[in-house]
Design a protein that fits this description.
Chain lengths: 107, 127
């Protein structure tokens, strides 16, 4: 199985900050990576697929980059609605695997 | 608009078999390229992929759970059913079904990601 490791596990930031979350794969997954946002008690929501493609309706302050084994999710200017947990997930091969999540908290 | 909704028991006893149904709208599982998957999330923990089924009835399972899982589809009812045998308290989780979308390459390989999620259904395993 491909292991996905996110860092940091928790991130404290303020509204307006630029933040970056990193996701590393235990082997190359090319560009087949997605990012999801999950708020407490809610289902995850797709933000980014194919490492850098924004899903429809996702604000442009979100961006993704990377290929191979290292990927990043960047929020250019944090908004109050962005405080949530973020997961990366590889879909290069079965079994699909997720990172352990990064909780973005208000500082 | 694509929507999915999970249904099933909220409480099962250990060793029982869990049956969950995903009822969806806005797409058809009889159309080429379509897939539906299941993911679960234990309380306070990360997401775990369980299984998925494609329009052509191809099925994929998590290797760690494969012996306990069965996924089927009923295209006439727009439903996908997941059964999990021999339930244990560690299977307590919220179970989500998802619509799978895909990227394709020039060499006609398809890569499926989790596009639209249902709201989830919480299952507790306890005697």
């Amino acid at each position: 199985d491909i292991q996905m490791t996110q860092s940091p596990s928790t991130l404290s930031a303020s509204v307006g900050d630029r933040v970056t979350i990193t996701c590393r794969a235990s082997q190359s997954i090319s560009i087949w990576l997605a990012w999801y946002q999950q708020k407490p008690g809610k289902a995850p929501k797709l933000l980014i697929y194919k490492a850098s493609s924004l899903d429809r309706g996702v604000p442009s302050r979100f961006s993704g980059s990377g290929s191979g084994t290292e990927f990043t999710l960047t929020i250019s200017s944090l908004q109050p609605d962005d405080f949530a947990t973020y997961y990366c997930q590889q879909y290069n091969s079965y079994p699909y695997t997720f990172g352990q999540g990064t909780k973005l908290e208000i500082k | 608009q694509i929507t999915l909704k999970e249904s099933g028991p909220t409480l099962v006893t250990p060793t029982q078999t869990l049956t969950l149904t995903c009822t969806f709208s806005g797409f058809s599982l009889s159309i080429s390229g379509v897939g539906v998957g299941w993911i679960r999330q234990p309380p306070g923990k990360a997401l775990e992929w369980l299984a998925l089924i494609y329009w052509d009835d191809d099925k994929r399972y998590s290797p760690s759970l494969k012996s306990r899982l069965t996924i089927t589809k009923d295209t006439s009812k727009n439903q996908v059913v997941l059964t999990m045998t021999n339930m244990d308290p560690v299977d307590t989780a919220t179970y989500y079904c998802v619509h799978m979308d895909y990227d394709s390459t020039e060499s006609n390989f398809y890569y499926y990601y989790m596009h639209v999620w249902g709201e989830g259904t919480t299952v507790t395993v306890s005697s």
